[in-house]
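Handoff note, outgoing to incoming analyst
You'll be picking up this chain. Sequence as last confirmed:
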Amino acid sequence: MKTRRRPYSDQRPTDLGGGVWSVPVPIPGNPLGYTLVYAVESPGGIVLIDAGWNHEDAWTALRDGLATVGVNVSDLRGVVVTHYHPDHAGLAGRVREESGGWIAMHQADADLVRLYRELAGDDGRHLQVEMMRKAGAGADAEAMVTADRPIPPAQPDVELQDHDLIDLPGRPLRAIWTPGHTPGHLCLHLEDTDRMFTGDHVLPGITPHIGIYPYDRSDTDPLTDYLASLDRLSVYTTTEALPAHEWTFPDVATRAAEIHQHHEQKLITLEALLTPTPHTIWQIAEKMTWNRPWPDLTPIQRGLAAGEAAAHLRTLESRGKAHRHPNAHFSTTP
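Most recent structure output, in case you need it:
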């Protein structure tokens, strides 16, 4: 079944067949509109794939949407979180409180949840502002002093590794580690029906955010990781994708290859923007093409754009196409 993206107001819980349902859960104030939460039935109970944003409207939509397809939150066996971002993990803790079930997440993202819970409040805000200042953000950095920050998600009970089987008795639901969007992003392959819950890793009409935080890190290369994760899905040529946003689609492998090519072209375009004169990450981000003109982006959106610029610059650096200078300036390779 293929379901095209519609406004949240037009979305309804859907029986996708094979013991799988989708429930749209709103993301307040976000242009994505909603997260598609999936419920997977097994002889041992029902498991959710993701849970949605931690907001009362989202909770009502999740609870009532599940009830529409005959599922009571209190009866859930657990929640597998594809990655720690708030539109996926935000309500997992509340589901656990209501059901007594478990929360599962890849170990790398579980480590980040621990870190963010430690940095909740002013400490985390201070680090974000300093990161933006060092990148040359100017007034945009100051705007982050009063910006809202999402509540950190709940710490998971189960920390998954690549190839682990999820606790879903009678149905083989396997974790596939696909780092890039986050260090611990997981796709989940429901092997008995050859379906894959792709989270944000592979989406049908858009591409996920790939960024580096802090921007000046040189010990990680998330875009290179992401491209390798896309290539890993090349064998899933007959597998139906059930993504966390937009709509379901056939042939995971073809879409993964398209996204890989998109980023390769973006790297070529970025390399052409570099000059022998070193520029800050913020200055380079201003030159790049985004879905709206740079002046129309909010400070938060500019911060995300700079993170994506940093990730692409890091990959160019690892390929010998860009040169890093002190204080996170970049130029063409001498």
